[in-house]
Design a protein that fits this description.
Blueprint: H1 17-28, H2 32-39, H3 43-50, H4 60-74, H5 78-186, H6 189-222, E1 246-253, E2 257-262, E3 268-274, E4 279-285, E5 288-292, E6 298-302, E7 305-307, E8 318-322
Antiparallel strand pairs: 1-4, 1-6, 2-3, 2-5, 5-8, 6-7
Helix pairs in contact: 1-4, 1-5, 2-3, 4-5
Length: about 325
């Protein structure tokens, strides 16, 4: 449904319905208490009407009815009062839009300051990186001048260590030879034959072990590190991730009836008194929260399905949601 609103220029002063009614009441010499008694209103309600404080929770039809009755009592044209009431809502909407515009301007200014701060931090990081590389290059040049001296010392020390290792190795070979000779002198012929047979068995078992380890290695390599299941886990979406579905509702009125309807986003999409024979089609986000003054005068089709209205009491206000909970 398209929504139209009248824009007010800044130099036009809106006279609210409460001020009009209060001036007419004082011109007639009536007090708020007297008005409340004649209209069967609460004194607090009369005071709120004159202060233009309307309960947003009530349907707009009730506020209009209060204004009409008050206007008739004090002799003010009810059309002028209702027109002032409508313009009061337009002015409030424009004030809200101006406030939102000022908030957007403040956010843009904050974003601009944050952007400049980010640029400053980035420039500081680049400067520190350049300084670090320049210092590193100067350290490398000083280290390269000292390197030849340290290389010569390293070569000298390595040569001396090689000579020492050679001497110790020769001594070790001599010691091993002496031990082997002495062991040959102490071992008898029978012990020598036993040692030879054990050595041959060990040499025969060694190739078998090598072959077994060679065969076992590929098997271990072919085994996967992690075994993944063949079945895939299907992840279902949670209720918060389920997108809201648009819905269509058609209301057919057999008589005058007031309605008040909100969609699933909390926006009021229809309200007021609907005349007999009027067919109203609504599109929005489900669920719809519906309040109907006379359910026996309304026929409803929701997404192509007819809604049973006979279960609601005749002449009583009906409140329900579409789609209806099963």
């Amino acid at each position: 449904m398209s929504k139209t609103s009248t824009e007010l220029s800044e130099d036009i002063e809106v006279i609210g319905p409460g001020k009009m009614l209060a001036e007419a009441r004082m011109a007639m010499g009536l007090s708020q208490q007297q008005v409340a008694e004649q209209l069967n209103f609460r004194p607090a309600l009369v005071e709120k009407i004159e202060q233009e404080i309307f309960d947003s929770k009530l349907p707009d039809t009730f506020n209009r009815g209060y204004l009409k009755n008050y206007a008739k009592l004090v002799g003010v044209d009810e059309h002028d009062v209702l027109a002032s009431y409508e313009m009061l809502g337009v002015a409030a909407k424009q004030r809200t839009e101006l406030q939102s515009f000022s908030k957007i301007t403040e956010k843009e200014a904050q974003h601009s300051r944050l952007m400049w701060l980010s640029y400053f931090i980035l420039a500081a990081l680049i400067a520190s990186t350049v300084i670090y590389y320049l210092q590193d290059a100067s350290n490398d040049s000083s280290t390269s001048s000292i390197a030849p001296v340290s290389d010569s010392q390293t070569n000298t020390s390595s040569q001396s260590s090689d000579v020492a290792k050679t001497q110790s190795g020769n001594a070790g070979v001599t010691d091993v030879a002496g031990v082997s000779d002495s062991s040959q002198e102490l071992i008898s012929p029978a012990q020598a034959a036993t040692i030879a047979s054990q050595a041959s068995q060990t040499s025969q078992a060694q190739p078998e072990l090598n072959a077994t380890s060679t065969l076992a290695a590929p098997v271990q390599e072919t085994l996967p590190a992690n075994i993944e299941p063949n079945e895939r886990v299907q992840v279902t979406a949670t209720d918060a991730e389920v997108a809201q579905i648009p819905a269509t509702a058609v209301f057919s009125f057999a008589g005058d009836c007031w309605v008040n309807i909100y969609d699933g986003t909390g926006e009021r999409i229809a309200w007021g008194i609907k005349k007999a024979g009027y067919v109203m089609q609504l599109k929005g986000t489900a669920p719809f929260k519906v309040t109907v003054g006379k359910p026996e005068l309304v026929a409803i089709d929701f997404n192509g399905e007819s809604i049973d209205m006979s279960k609601y009491n005749v002449g009583n206000i009906a409140k329900f949601s579409l789609p209806e909970s099963s």
